[in-house]
Amino acid sequence: MNISSNSKGVFVAGSYNLDIVSRVATFPQKGETVRVISRKLLAGGKGANQATACRRVTQNTHFFAKLGRDDFAKQAIEHLEEQQFATLTLAEAIDSHTGVALITLSEREKDNNIVLDLGANLEVTDTDIQDVSDQLEHASVVLVQLESNIEAVSLVLHKAKAQAKTTILNPAPYHEQAHTLLPMVDVITPNEIEASELSGVVIHDIDTAEKAARIIYQMGVPNVIITLGSNGCLAYDGNEFKRFLSYPADVVDTSGAGDAFNGSLAAFLSLGKTLSDSINFATAFASCSVENEGAANMPSMAQVEAKLAMVRK
Predict the structure, then answer these.
(1) How far apart are CA 56 and CA 50, in angstroms?
(2) Name one Pfam family in it (predicted).
(3) I need a labelling partner for 57 at 20 to 30 A (CA). Which of 234, 260, 286, 306 fits?
(4) pLDDT tens-digit profile of 150-195?
(5) Parallel, antiparallel or unpaired: strands 38-44 and 187-188
(6) 237 counts as catalytic
């Protein structure tokens, strides 16, 4: 696992969604209605969350997304400008709405489920991508997800590989055409569900996770990282498997953990770190993120460094 990058920064192309977050005592069963304990409107979207996580680690973070023409877009612009990205490019979909995510957090299960209305995120055009060519050129690592239309994701990856960038695909949410992107991907970061969909192997333990990782590697991705929630993650580079255990955490909200992992992984790689060191850092970063409420509420470097120091003792 010797992949690393120079320190030119990260370009994140992805989604923005307004998160409508409802906290409940326990998830409803089929046909059951449960009362909401509390509800909040928060900034979100996998692209925006990952870019925010990346920005916590490196100032040289570039972000692109597409919004609708509505009040939610105004909130998005205000939030994203506060993150102080190196560059922020927001295209506008005149005939569509800003994406919305309905998120339910269960206090009993300490977990979440999410329903998406992606709206403008699915309207990214070739022209939109062409307009951010300069930003992409000034990055060494390119990070994408699957909350945007697959054609746009493919074009970003194609341009990135043509410029010899390190490409990271977080294949979430799973898309049936995700396999078409794999030849352009250096690092892939599915969770257990996404890895199961990609590989055809139902993951229920480490042995099945290893089997899935081998299959995804054989599909053309040189570095496979399967995230395993509270069990950390498993990495495979065709030569060896490496297990990274999660760091201790007082869990408040797990909804942004995957985004925290991906954004911080890309950032640490862009700083010239090895993939193994970057995975370890991202695991600690994600463990810190679950101690904060809100998927976009990413930890500070001070929090992450304290977590790493605590474990070293």
Answers:
(1) 10
(2) PfkB
(3) 234
(4) 999 999 999 999 999 999 999 999 999 999 999 999 999 999 999 9
(5) unpaired
(6) no
Q: Where are the domains of the chain?
A: 10-15+44-98+121-312
Would you say 191 is a known binding-site residue? yes
Q: Which two tokens stand for residue 42?
A: 């928060």
**Residue 289 marked as a ligand binder:** yes
Tokens of 119: 């709206």
Q: Which two tokens stand for residue 271?
A: 């700083």
Annotated binding-site residue? 246 = no
The pLDDT value given to residue 20: 92
Of 116, 110, 146, 127, the closest CA to residue 26 belongs to 110
Number of H helices, E strands in the chain: 10, 13
Query: How far are the Cα atoms of 29, 194, 221, 266, 269 from residue 188, in angstroms, in the given order?
Result: 33, 11, 7, 11, 14
Q: What are phi and psi of 116, to 5 degrees?
A: -110, 140
- Residues 101, 145 contacting (CB under 8 angstroms): no
Q: Which positions ≥6 away from 311 have C-beta within 8 Å?
A: 247, 248, 284
Q: Where are the alpha helices (DSSP H) in the chain?
A: 46-57, 71-82, 126-130, 133-137, 150-162, 192-199, 206-218, 257-270, 275-289, 301-312
CA 296 to mean position of chain CA atoms: 11
Residue of 128, 186, 237, 259 with catalytic role: 259
* 255 is annotated as contributing to ligand binding: yes
- DSSP annotation of 37: S
Is 25 marked as a binding-site residue? no
The reply to whether the predicted model has a pTM over 0.85 is yes
